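agent> call fold_tool(seq_1)
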Amino acid sequence: MLLVSVVLAPAWSQTSGSNVWSLQRCLEHALEHNLQLKQAELGIVRGQLGELSAKGAFLPNLNASSSYGVNIGQRIDPFTNTFATDAVQSSNYGMSSGVTLFNGFQNHLNLRRARLGLELAQTNVEIAQNNVALSLASGYLNVLFQKEFLTIAQLNAEATGRQVDRVQKLVNAGAAAESDLYDVLAQQASDASSVVAAENGVTLAQLALAQLLQLSGDDADGIDVAPPSDDLLETTQLPLSADAAVAFARNAFPDMKAAELQVTDAYLGLDLAKAARLPRINGSYSVGSGYSQNRQTAVVDPVYTNFTIETTQGIPLTVPVETSEGVYETMSFQDQLSNNVNQSIFFSLSVPLFNNFGIHTNIERAEVDVLSAQLAKDQTEQALTQTVEQAYADARAAQRTFEANDRALEAAELAMTNAEARFEAGAISALEYADARTRLDNARINALRTQYDFVFKTRILDFYLGRPLSL
């Protein structure tokens, strides 16, 4: 089952620019250009060729042959059945065909195995597509997170800039110590460094996404992502347990289907190994003709005269005697091809009796392969179950962490509002104000980090439930 469909976020329609990518656009591009997917798709081509080859094994073969040679020295000419001592040119032409009539049903088993291999190749493509979808979702959310982090850093830098202007005016009016200005300027420098670090984080996240998309040149330059929908958290729901996701993944995920196909393939391999014990029957037919320079035909027939002689027992015997020699020449190429046509039909039976334990060891090896495939299937099911259960546990923990950090952010914002008012009233120092700002920054970062962590891990759980990836 393929699980890479995507729900478009409404914010995409509000974003302009050809280098702004939605999650759906990312997935569509990856499905078309990803090298891992292209490699997996070649497996389908190999499977189709394997199926064609398995079908062809049921058909008879057909081969044509020809030969030409010059004989030097004494030999029996196969076309005249006489000794030839001179250099004689000869040629042979023929066609032959053979077919397997019975081979222990190996052709049928090979065809089933080829079709199974094609289905397995298609399943492997689905697995690759799912892996690409998960990687892209992670990279996409990382860009969104880094952009939000940059926004926070820029807002902090703007707030500090306002405080620098205010403290500068107080220092100029003699209402504040110059050391307070130095403290705020230090905070401004720190905020500027945070902005640069956040910009680098965005750049690196965008680069990582561009590499996942395998973009190059101008397409990779300045790649950006569409913002998520405003109700992102509202649409993020955590199921009560992981049982539904585990059950769905076991029944519908291509990983399990591939493992089951491997088990079936192993059983077919065992059947093929056992089929080697059965007899084989083959049939063949051939037709051919040839030409020999030594093949003669009479141009003028010889004249024979019958003479009667008596044997020693006095019995008369009539004997033909050549009284006039005939004239001969080499028979023409066309006539020889017509006269020398020969055909043959053969059937052969082969019964395996002993082959140095080869068949026995192949059967034993195939039985081991069956056990290995069954264990691999169990391992796949176990790993998939553990992955889903871990995804649920991660999402549950991320939800609790996010809720705790969200409450901490609310408290830090209230504390910062109070500290800002007290700082402007001169009730606290710039250092205390900076401490409040640091606590607020940390609370914002933690809330943002845990929010995206919760969203991503919940989307991963939705993925295992068969729901489309959506932002």
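agent> call fold_tool(seq_2)
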Amino acid sequence: MTPQARVQAAIEVLDLVITAARANGAPADRIVTDWFKSRRFAGSGDRRAVRDLVFRAIRACGDIPASGRAATLRLAQDDAALAGLFDGSRHAPGPIAPDEPVAASGVAPTWLVERLGQSGIAASDAAALLERAPLDVRVNTLRAGLAELPPGGERTMAPHGWRYPHGTRIEDSAAWAQGAIEVQDTGSQLACLAVEARPGESVIDLCAGGGGKTLALAAAMEGRGALLACDADRARLSKLAPRAARAGAYDIETRLLDTGREAEQLADWRGRADAVLVDAPCSGTGTWRRNPEARWRLTPQQLDRYAAIQARLMDIAAGLVRPGGRLVFVTCSLLDAEGADQAAAFLARQPGFVAENPALAVGEPRFAGWRLSPARDGTDGFFVARFRAV
């Protein structure tokens, strides 16, 4: 592909990404991959160049752009070389008209920027939400020693954490193939430490998803005790079994839950758990480094729905914790509606619990919890709160 053709390809992909964002369709990663499946003529260099341009444009636009061309022109305004590729030649985008619409720059849609500011995220810190994320891994102590770590990594603030540059092909390594490492952001690793899961305990991961945090809890428990991984999404939960086998975490029980019947289906665990992790569904504002188009999908109404789900799950979890046990609430969000406000509301509804400061290795207090952010801590954004049943 010529440089001009790469730009035109990026514009076409961006049109698909914008359409999907408006309809809550497929994520940008999948759209890029699918676009190239039917275009075998494109080489690996073409794929990398187009992908890079697509995600640069996504990061550059605050509000959802009118079109892929408008998004790409946002970049071209500050990049003369890119602007010069709009020359109308074969497979190239047409020349830029003087009055052509250009997408607006910014961190996020205006309402969302305001919410971040109200949640104590300064404009300078918010900009870090759109930087490229490194690749973090957790050394799996259940498989430690099976293979050497890939070269090029450096230690993180997590006890078993290592960081590699963006784009590292970690899944090609022997350490990954043998289960000696798991891909997991350092902030996520630290959030798991707040659970303080110990060997011999009874622990529930109430919103396990694909099981990334479940595997960290299993390693902390050293294969001893009872660990229950639950989720209402069959497809996501089904990914845990093969991951657990590779990681050597053989004692995890999984349970598929029906939305609205969770308490009934977990009646056998009522008042038994030493710890319950509620890694609740959320807006994902703390993960924009990895999913920058997610900020175009979120609406105030969706945020309210997430907050309602989080409150309901926390109340379900409260009934599962034994006296003296722990409930840990986690969201990958920097919005108080999904963090500090949720923690305060939980304490008001559940007088049988008190807040404890998780005091993680990095981050800072945020009312009744703890917050990690890309700008200050170099991790994904997280809110973590720990409560103890009294």
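agent> summarizing second result for user.
The chain has three domains: 3-106, 135-183, 186-389. The chain is about 40% helix and 15% strand.
agent> awaiting next instruction.
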